[in-house]
Structures are given as structure tokens and as C-alpha cells.
Specification:
This protein has two domains: 1-38, no CATH class; 40-134, Helix Hairpins (Orthogonal Bundle), CATH 1.10.287.3610. 12% of the residues are buried. Helix 2 crosses helix 3 (40-59), helix 3 packs parallel to helix 5 (99-134) and helix 4 (63-93) runs antiparallel to helix 5 (99-134). By secondary structure, it is mostly helical. The longest helix has 36 residues, at 99-134. The protein has helices at 10-14, 21-38, 40-59, 63-93, 99-134. It contains five helices and no strands. Residues 39, 41, 83, 87, 94, 97-98, 101-102, 105-106, 109 line the site of adenosine-5'-triphosphate (ATP). One of its GO terms (molecular function) is kinase activity.
Length: 137
């Protein structure tokens, strides 16, 4: 991950070394690509997101509904990125079984599941209400 020769360590921060905004975005992009490449769940979230967008277009949902759908898609994927980050830090610290490692990874996974459950609920409300309206019910 990251470009060779491209680091920003604690010494750089203490010296207030300049860190171009473009580099910061590039780092974020690296993180997102890493999550896609290594996490099957991230690819599943992306497939569900595409299906949700297609369904939104087909059903013709309104602007506030789109806002809720987009926020849910971003929220689930952001949670998966954070989960991936926590897993990486835990694995960096220990290869051995450790109760705190288990707690950290389980809680990180729990955050993704909570966000996903919320997204499913929002989808049921948004698409369900629109489908009922189209059916004249
Ligand atoms: N070092 C460890 N010590 C204790 N338990 C661990 C450790 N590493 C992993 N586990 C347990 O195994 C589970 C799966 O961990 P793993 O690193 O394989 O994540 P994963 O399968 O990629 O999870 P996710 O589906 O959330 O991305 C954790 O939720 C935790 O319960």
C-alpha cells in the first residue's frame, strides 16, 4: 500500500512538513482500493449499491429518498473501510490469539452489521413506500 518514498511519519508531523491535499486524497484512494481488493464484503456492498441505484431509477424515487440511499451506501462502505483498518492494526500488533484483539475485530465487524441493518431498513421504507404509491395503494 502507498507509493514508495511517500511517507508521513510522526517526525514529519512534528516538523509540520507540508502534505499536499492531492497526496491525502491519493492515500484515501489507496485505502479504498485495498478494501475492495481484500474484502469480499466490500465487493458485496458495491454490488448491492449498484442494485439499489438501479431500483431507485426504475421506481423513480424522489430527491430526499436518493439522499437517504446515497448516505446508506456511503455509510456501509465507510464502515467496511474502518473495519478493514481495525483488522490491519490488530494483525500488525499480534498474530497470536488475544482477547482484546477479538473484541476489537468483533466490535468493528458489529459496526458494519449495524450500518447494514440500518441501510436495509431505509431501503425497505424508501422502495416499499414508492412501490405502494406506484401500485396506487
Ligand atoms: N488475534 C486474534 N485474537 C483473537 N481473535 C481473533 C484474532 N484475529 C481474529 N480473531 C477472531 O476471528 C474473527 C475473524 O477475524 P478475521 O481477521 O479473519 O476477520 P475477517 O474474517 O476478515 O472479518 P470480517 O468479515 O469482519 O471482515 C474476528 O472477528 C475475531 O473474533
Amino acid at each position: 500500500m502507498g507509493e514508495p518514498g511517500f511517507v508521513r511519519n510522526r517526525g514529519d508531523k512534528e516538523a509540520h512538513a507540508r502534505f499536499p491535499l492531492g497526496r491525502a486524497f491519493a492515500c484515501a484512494g489507496c485505502g479504498i482500493r485495498h478494501a475492495f481488493a481484500t474484502q469480499r464484503n466490500m465487493r458485496i456492498h458495491a454490488a448491492v449499491a449498484v442494485a439499489a441505484v438501479v431500483l431507485g431509477v426504475v421506481l423513480g424515487i424522489d430527491a430526499p429518498s436518493w439522499a437517504a440511499v446515497v448516505l446508506c451506501i456511503a455509510g456501509v462502505m465507510a464502515a467496511e473501510c474502518a473495519n478493514t483498518a481495525i483488522e490491519a492494526v490488530v494483525d500488525l500488533v499480534t498474530d497470536d490469539y488475544a482477547e482484546l484483539a477479538r473484541v476489537a475485530k468483533d466490535c468493528a465487524a458489529g459496526a458494519v452489521y449495524l450500518m447494514a441493518i440500518g441501510a436495509v431498513a431505509v431501503g425497505a421504507i424508501v422502495y416499499g413506500a414508492r412501490a405502494l404509491a406506484l401500485l396506487g395503494l
